[in-house]
């Protein structure tokens, strides 16, 4: 397995994204001409959300028996995580599970913020019981053992068309997922906070009787 390096941003930047909605961040990324919205991967349970530094994983998949259990080095991945990470797995959207209940428990026990997987997960009831935020393309009971090989960790991966580098900021909520490139994260955070301030002002103005069309003109970024 190829193992790259991860440079995590200062905690105050990453945690600054907590409480910001993905819609607002998506607006900022649009203005900056950055493709960061991951469109087709959704929370596996209502209410799941997470923010953290991307720890990336690359996998390949074949039919049962293509790989050995030893090729599925998920334990090594989890043992490498740090508190506040979001594990981001690129399995090219295959309909096979690469994560389950015990992995969720182990990751949460280490302080991992959540999981984003372009592929599948299983043990949904346990994931919900443990309260570990998971965002996945598929939920199905097909094991990755014998079918999946982890080929790289902390290298650039492609998740639903979006390039994710180790250390990028992942923000995921009920609306969807955004990847904020580490190099512009501080700037995105500053602008997103201003956008949300304007949103709050718009709500107050509408409460006072301002029409929605007038609010759209007055607060262009809402």
UniProtKB/TrEMBL annotation:
<feature type="binding site">
    <location>
        <begin position="100"/>
        <end position="103"/>
    </location>
    <ligand>
        <name>substrate</name>
    </ligand>
</feature>
<keyword id="KW-0460">Magnesium</keyword>
<dbReference type="InterPro" id="IPR005493">
    <property type="entry name" value="RraA/RraA-like"/>
</dbReference>
<feature type="binding site">
    <location>
        <position position="123"/>
    </location>
    <ligand>
        <name>substrate</name>
    </ligand>
</feature>
<feature type="binding site">
    <location>
        <position position="122"/>
    </location>
    <ligand>
        <name>substrate</name>
    </ligand>
</feature>
<dbReference type="Pfam" id="PF03737">
    <property type="entry name" value="RraA-like"/>
</dbReference>
<keyword id="KW-0479">Metal-binding</keyword>
<dbReference type="InterPro" id="IPR036704">
    <property type="entry name" value="RraA/RraA-like_sf"/>
</dbReference>
<dbReference type="GO" id="GO:0047443">
    <property type="term" value="F:4-hydroxy-4-methyl-2-oxoglutarate aldolase activity"/>
</dbReference>
<dbReference type="GO" id="GO:0046872">
    <property type="term" value="F:metal ion binding"/>
</dbReference>
<protein>
    <recommendedName>
        <fullName>Putative 4-hydroxy-4-methyl-2-oxoglutarate aldolase</fullName>
    </recommendedName>
</protein>
<dbReference type="GO" id="GO:0008948">
    <property type="term" value="F:oxaloacetate decarboxylase activity"/>
</dbReference>
